[in-house]
Structure formats: C-alpha cells, structure tokens
Amino acid sequence: MLAGVRLRPAKRMKEIPPSSTLKVLNLAKELERQGKDIVHMEVGEPDFDTPAHIKRAAEEALARGMTKYTPSAGLPELREAIAEHLVTKGISTDAKNVIVTPGAKHAIFCALAATLDPGDEVIIPSPCWTYEAMVRIVGGKPVFIESKQSDEFKVKKTFSPSLILPSITIFGSYPTRFTIVWCTKENT
After folding, report:
1. What secondary structure letter does DSSP report for 6?
2. Domain extents for the chain?
3. Phi-psi region for residue 60, left (φ > 0), alpha (ψ -120 to 50) or beta?
4. Parallel, antiparallel, or unpaired: how do β-strands 168-174 and 121-126 relate?
5. Does the reported pTM lie above 0.90?
6. Dihedral sign, CA of 54, 57, 108, 184?
7. 181, 169 Cβ separation under 8 angstroms
8. Consecutive H or E run containing 121
9. Is 11 helix (H, G, I), strand (E, B) or coil?
10. Fold classification of 104-188 (topology level)
11. Are 126 and 147 in contact (CB under 8 A)?
C-alpha cells in the first residue's frame, strides 16, 4: 500500500515468463551453498575481479567530479571512441549513430520497444537467451525456430514461408551478437 493506493502489476505482466537467467542463477547459488564449485555462465558476469587499471580510472573519474547524469545516448567522448574503434572492425559510422547502453539486454529492449507494434511477430532462433519476455512486454508475439548445434546454431532458411508477414523482426544471437532484420514476403 502506498498512501492508501494498492499498486498492482499491469495485466500484460501475466504474459511475461519468469527470467530463465535468474532461475539458473538461483540454482547455481544454491549449489554453491552446498559446497559445489560452479562456473557461472548465466548472468554474463566475469569470474574475476575488475582489473586494477579500470578501478583506478573509476577512482580518477570520481575525483574529477564525474558523478552527474550523463547524456542519455552516452558521453560524447565515449561515443567518439567507440565509432573510431568500429572503424578498426571494418564498420564506418559517426559518433551520432552510436548509443551507449548499460548492457545488451537494455539495448535490445529499447530496439524492440521502438520498432514493434502490438501483435508483430518476432522470429527467435532457439535455444536462445531471454528474448521472449522482452518481446511480450512490448506486445510482440515470439515465434521460436529451432537452431541446431550441427549448423553452428545458425538458422537455415527452412522455416515456413507462412511465418513471413508484412512486419517481422528476426533475432539472432550468435555469441555476443544480435541482429534485427525486417522481413517482408518481397525480400525473403
């Protein structure tokens, strides 16, 4: 209760599955409590301490007073450095086209929220990471397509053409990458 008002989740939250990532993390933590040696591969955190040079840089930034809000797209200097780094990877872009987010999940969620309309289908290769909840929360409909280890988890063009509607987003997660592609019957 908040000042006599009962807060309740939106009805759409009933459609959101629990986080499989956190489910696996909780299981791993329980196994650790039982004395098992666990290598964590569920939440994307490294199993080593933050390197000393990064800690020093953070301390120096704090000492310089860098404790205020940053622009929502990220610090301009960081965005410029990222754009310059992308050139070394064969990707030419300007800093104005770079957005810094607090993580991949946030970036993916923002992309979905900005591009999906209620009922749009999202083709998700499976096995997959926790895309389903993000698709559902913005009103999209997840459509899972099996990908196989024998194919290096790449989706082969064997799914039903009936899945291609006027506005479908296709997700792919190949270690550390995601892709959003708009498909129509004309371009498949």
Report:
1. -
2. 70-100, 104-188
3. alpha
4. parallel
5. no
6. negative
7. yes
8. strand 121-126
9. helix
10. Aspartate Aminotransferase; domain 2 (3.40.640)
11. yes
DSSP character string of 64-90: TT--S---TT--HHHHHHHHHHHHHTT
Q: Which residue has the tokens 């946030």?
A: 106
Instruction: Confirm if 98 and 148 have CB atoms less than 8 A apart.
Output: no
Cα(136)–Cα(124) distance, rounded to whole angstroms? Answer: 12
Apex CA 180: angle with CA 179 and CA 185, to 5°? Answer: 125
Alpha-carbon distance 182 to 41, whole Å?
31
List CB contacts of 97: < 8 A, sequence separation 6 or more: 83
In DSSP terms, which residues pair with 123 in a beta bridge? 143, 170
Sequential pLDDT tens for the chain (188 residues): 567 777 888 888 887 888 888 888 999 999 999 999 988 877 777 778 999 999 999 999 999 999 999 999 999 999 999 999 999 989 899 999 999 998 888 888 888 898 888 888 888 877 777 788 888 999 888 888 877 778 777 666 655 555 555 555 555 544 444 555 555 555 55
Q: Residue for token digits 């770079």?
A: 98
